[in-house]
Amino acid sequence: MEASSTANQCRLFSPPMKTADEHVNSNRDLVSNKITTHEFDNQFQDSGTEDSVSGTEDDDDDDDDDGNDQEDTSISDCESGISGPNTDQSQLLHEIIKRRFISGLDSLGLDTSVVSIHRNSCSSFTGQARLQSFHIFARAISKKCGGNANLKYAWYGASRDEIEKIVSHGFGHCGDAENKGWFGRGIYLSPDDSPIDSVKSSIVDNDGLKHVLLCRVILGNMEVVHPGSEQCYPSSEEFDSGVDNLVTPKKYIVWSTHMNTHILPEYIISFRAPPCSKGERRIQAPLRKPNSPWMPFCTLISVLSKFLPPQTVSLISKYHTDHRENKISRHELIRLVREMVGDKLLTAVIKSYRDKQLKASTDFSTTNSSSKSHRRNSEFKQS
Known about the structure:
The termini are far apart. Helix 8 packs antiparallel against helix 9 (310-324). This protein has an 8-stranded mixed sheet with strand order 1-8-4-2-3-7-6-5, with helices on both faces. It folds into 2 domains: 2-278, Phosphoenolpyruvate Carboxykinase, domain 3, CATH 3.90.228; 298-362. 33% of the residues are buried. The chain has helices at 2-10, 37-46, 87-103, 125-144, 160-169, 196-201, 276-284, 297-304, 310-324, 330-341, 343-382; strands spanning 113-119, 151-158, 186-191, 210-218, 222-224, 241-243, 252-255, 263-272. Strand 6 and strand 7 (252-255) form a beta hairpin. By secondary structure, it is of the alpha+beta class. Its main location: nucleus. Pfam families: PARP, RST.
């Protein structure tokens, strides 16, 4: 029975990816609120509401609501695992998700096409248990944080195989191989308005498709996690999750201790996109300035060591070594350093170095000019 339910969940990836949603009639008591697609759009934009929502896949099985079409005209709460919206609402909901995904990719979105969007039916017994667990923890964090669990939408990119395992069994490891330990031991998710990092983490499958998960995440009270951190759980009872930047976050960090209680995968988005390196160049190109100030990388590391923690400087040195050994591209090295250091500090350091170089050059020119003038005067007197 369990194997059959799990198989149904995994059918989300079966070509041509147009299968009907699974309908589950248990755990109706978990339903808290039902919302319309208009409200879902608003939630997607501010990602600050309490109730988790989900829609169904485009299909013609509108008669599976047991005569409750009038009652279930809104999007069913994913925590119930029950399908509710009609085809028009489902299409509108998917259009909202697609629009949000593409718009968050900036110029890379011009060459990205969404092939399909599937809802995680959470139809297995363990899937239902994970739904209940998420619901319970959301309520607990809400009480702990004064009524706001800080639920957000977030993206998670991985290979097709890994996403299948997450849908069937939950998260089984923390962070990807390249960024292991970068922001501590946890699951790194991208904010709903900036999926680019998750797209970079996704891997092309045999059909030429990439896949990302759209998840609901319990963030609670977030703490800033600095690059190079070895943190693997909240630093105190006050905090529940991590973030790289409180003002303009690019990464949410859900600790390994919370990865299967604070993250609820709701949708699987399959898409075609240009190679990651190509996308990075296109996104970063507008940020680069021709003839920009330059300084030797070793000098940069030496100067940064005065401002950054030793572990961060060590990580920058490692990435520099990886670049010299052709393990990562120059664009990737620059991107990593910018994310770890921040443009403000980098600009200040490079400007300071440039000013010193200009001053040294000016002093040399002045000294050299004075020396030549002195020699000319001496020669004139001798003649």
